[in-house]
Amino acid sequence: GAGVSQSPSNKVTEKGKDVELRCDPISGHTALYWYRQSLGQGLEFLIYFQGNSAPDKSGLPSDRFSAERTGGSVSTLTIQRTQQEDSAVYLCASGWTGAADTQYFGPGTRLTVL
Amino acid sequence: EDKVVQSPLSLVVHEGDTVTLNCSYEVTNFRSLLWYKQEKKAPTFLFMLTSSGIEKKSGRLSSILDKKELFSILNITATQTGDSAVYLCAVNNQGGKLIFGQGTELSVKP
Q1: Do residue B96 and residue A102 have CB atoms under 8 angstroms apart?
Q2: Residue of A nearest to B50 (CA)
Q3: Chain B residues lying within 8 Å of A35, measured CB to CB
């Protein structure tokens, strides 16, 4: 039951293809976050799931990006019609709702769009 | 717009030196400030600060928050090569999500 896990660790795809990135949060954590980190940049917030509430999607950069969280646990981030500028490390984090300040990060998925 | 700014962006020191990393912020509804250490991929949690003037300490690392001047510092004493990493500062603005600075890349030379 260790930490947050993500898969795949690396993904290379061709421009225009769809990709799905998976996040398994720490068991019992009710809050789940997706961030993106481009080369040499800080982390950019994408989307936040908190318990059964509607997710905060305010960070999604375009409608090609979507995410869902099934059964309050596993989450999938989907990027449709990938573009080269989508290349980045996608990080997932989880925490406890209400005390969600401390977020525990997974190892990330490095996405390369050719 | 909420923002977090870290300085310097990069720093090279020698083992045994003491370093101070800076983080300033502008957020509308401050809840907490967090420091993370990032080696390779996953950021690992270091400190969470919510109150001004109370130092948090863990071994050779310490951090303090000034909510009046809107900044925090992270100190590392007697640096070691294993301290080489990117140090990230983030602020929680009560919306749940974290707003991150650009990070400070610290390189400790033997």
Answers
A1: no
A2: A101
A3: 98, 100
Closest by CA to A14, choosing from A99, A67, A81, A105, is A81
pLDDT in tens, chain B (110 residues): 889 999 999 999 999 999 999 999 998 888 899 999 999 778 999 999 998 999 999 999 999 999 999 999 999 999 999 999 999 999 988 777 789 999 999 999 99
By Cβ distance, the residue of B41, B98, B102 closest to A41 is B102
User: Which residues in chain A have their CB less than 8 angstroms from residue B102's CB?
Assistant: 41-42
Contact B45, A102 (CB under 8 A): yes
